[in-house]
Specification:
Layout: E1 4-7, H1 9-17, H2 23-37, E2 41-48, E3 57-64, E4 69-74, E5 81-86, E6 93-98, H3 100-118, E7 125-129, H4 135-145, E8 151-155, H5 159-173, E9 176-179, H6 183-187, E10 192-195, E11 218-221, H7 229-233, E12 236-239, H8 243-246, H9 255-260, E13 269-271, H10 272-276, E14 290-293, H11 299-314, E15 319-321
Parallel strand pairs: 1-6, 7-8, 7-10, 8-9, 10-11, 11-14, 12-13, 12-14
Antiparallel strand pairs: 1-15, 2-3, 3-4, 4-5, 5-6
Helix pairs in contact: 1-3, 2-3, 2-11, 3-4, 3-11
Length: 331
């Protein structure tokens, strides 16, 4: 069996530190969406959670015609992120990789792709909720996806954090990033509203009120419970695919309640693949607000991990290890 390449978070850290690498994950996500839309990818998932457990263990396997095969493991504590790559034909293991850094780039890239295709024409202002781990790749990718962006209004609960974040992002991306004192101030006048608050899982109140959000705006949601049922019903909804909303043991809030009441169905979702190809548009009128539900879409993982692996190999990073000894029989 060939040696396996072991790649740690320190190997991938330069990808977060240097904005010039943003185009790689964005391209990988676009290719993943098109591959899914063309029906050439396959996906299977397993979830195990104890009662009340936030993450549990989630295992996702993705493969496709002409791709490698990938196995993603998410767990806790402390929120383990790992990825294994296998040859798509022989199934030999090629790499065991940290997936914390690459996953943050994947999530950011999805926001960037969604903004590229769903932001209203002439979008100039983004409202960002959150300044933590996921926020820098969100800024990095949305700036790439919407080159005309001029201002980012950021709110997070700790004043010092949002001020430091704003200064750092302004310098890195040449866009005015302004810290503000409330969610409403961050959302005010924004063409793109990015709900980059993954810690919101344990909070049951929605993050934003509909009247705060500019008509025609794009709202990117990346966690359950961020939006109310009433907010969803007043907007158009787009996502990578319908299954991404219902692939858990039950649909996530707020879609679960709407589906149970017969108020929301597959016909109410526009998938991103046809949008990218110019074959669909969730808006019926320019003033329609669009929600892009960022969750799901696990085929993205395989394409981003493959890109990260190829980049690491080109840089001579990682170290190899053997899973079997020379003395073991070959069957």
């Amino acid at each position: 069996m060939p040696d396996v390449l072991l790649l740690s978070d320190s190997d991938f850290w330069p990808l977060r530190a240097d904005p010039t690498y943003a185009d790689g994950p964005i391209d990988a996500v676009e290719r993943a969406i098109r591959a899914h839309n063309d029906g050439v990818t396959r996906f299977q998932g397993i979830v195990d959670r104890n009662p009340g457990e936030f993450e549990g263990l989630r295992v996702a396997m993705a493969a496709g015609d002409g791709t490698l095969t990938g196995l993603r493991l998410f767990g806790n504590p402390p929120h383990t992120r790992a990825f294994m790559l296998f040859d798509g034909t022989t199934r030999a293991m090629m790499a065991l990789m940290d997936y914390g850094v690459l996953n943050s780039l994947r999530v950011g890239a999805i926001a960037g792709v969604a903004s590229k295709y769903l932001a209203p024409p002439g979008a100039k202002v983004m409202g960002l909720l959150g300044s933590g781990w996921q926020a820098p790749p969100q800024v990095q990718s949305v700036v790439r996806g919407v080159p005309g962006l001029e201002r980012i209004q950021v709110y997070s609960p700790t004043k010092a954090n949002r001020e430091t974040f704003a200064e750092r992002m302004s310098e890195a991306h040449g866009v005015e990033v302004v810290p503000v004192d409330s969610i409403e101030a961050a959302v005010d006048g924004a063409d793109i509203v990015d709900l980059c608050a993954p810690g919101h899982f344990d909070v049951h109140e929605p993050l934003v009120d509909l009247e705060w959000v500019k008509p025609g705006a794009l709202v990117i949601s990346m966690a359950a419970k961020q939006l109310s049922e009433e907010f969803v019903l007043a907007c158009r909804v787009a996502t990578v695919n319908w299954n991404s909303l219902v692939n858990e043991p039950r649909p996530r809030p707020p879609y679960d309640g709407l589906i149970e009441k017969g108020l929301f169905s597959r016909d109410d979702v526009t998938e991103l693949g046809p949008i990218m190809d110019g074959q669909a548009d969730p808006r019926r009128a320019p003033e329609d607000r669009v929600i892009y539900d960022l969750t799901g879409g696990n085929v993205h993982d395989l394409f981003v991990a493959t890109w990260g692996y190829e980049w690491a190999v080109s840089q001579g990073l990682g170290r190899t290890f053997a899973l079997t000894g020379e003395s073991l029989p070959r069957w």
